[in-house]
Amino acid sequence: MQLKPAELIINEDGSIYHLNLLPEDIATTIITVGDPDRVHQVSQHFDTIEVKKGKREFHTHTGHLNGKRISVISTGIGTDNIDIVINELDALVNIDFKTRTLKEKHTSLDIIRIGTTGAIQPDIPIDTFLISKYSLGFDGLLHFYEHDNINYPDIEDEFIAHTSWNPYKARPYVLSYSEKLGELFSDNRIRLGFTATNTGFYGPQQRQLRITPSQMELLEKLSTFNFKELQLTNLEMETSGIYALAQLLGHEAVSLNCILANRATGEFSVTPTASVDRLIEFCLKRLA
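-> structure tokens emitted (288 positions)
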């Protein structure tokens, strides 16, 4: 089947529409970060950089570290951007742009998110690291794609009952990380987490400035949810989308989080840049 121009949009220079990348521009090991400025924060550790491209909020550097080729790309904030980034990264390695047809041989990417997050359990210290073993998505992205047997309906049902979830909202979905990448980054300094992915930073995460969120009790319900001793640990805005699309497209994915805030105690890191730097260095050491 040949993909139509309105489905697979290719720029005049042969690059994919939003990311502005050519197939040869990316490695099969890809680090995603939200903030475009964090791309340099990662790539400054590379031995060499061969690609530097950017368009909108999507900035990409590809280089080598200890002989390993790695790409780092900024996604911006939210699962709507993740939908763009993961689909277009997959297209770069699994679609022939000249014929607009799917390649016979599938290429699997290793996708590692390095992000910041807020803990919702009081015993999770500021500036520590957490791996999202599970994600709970409020965004509904998974439901826009055909999917079978990748989520955990038993956990979802228990969560819906615990929170008296509004039936007019998207059904929350639960996914897990790549076991392969989880083992790669396993360390006694890093906590295994159950991460909730929100659709916004303020109201959806029960932050109140001048508008009162509609469910002020939701944060407490999130922090008290327990499924066979599995508790929610933190809130952020991308992980569920990454896990969803990675599994649907046949890629490996893991989300590494630096705890910059603790919503239970009200604390925020006084050294956020240094803390993220330590997580970046840990990640690159394991990869290379």
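The chain has a mean pLDDT of 95.
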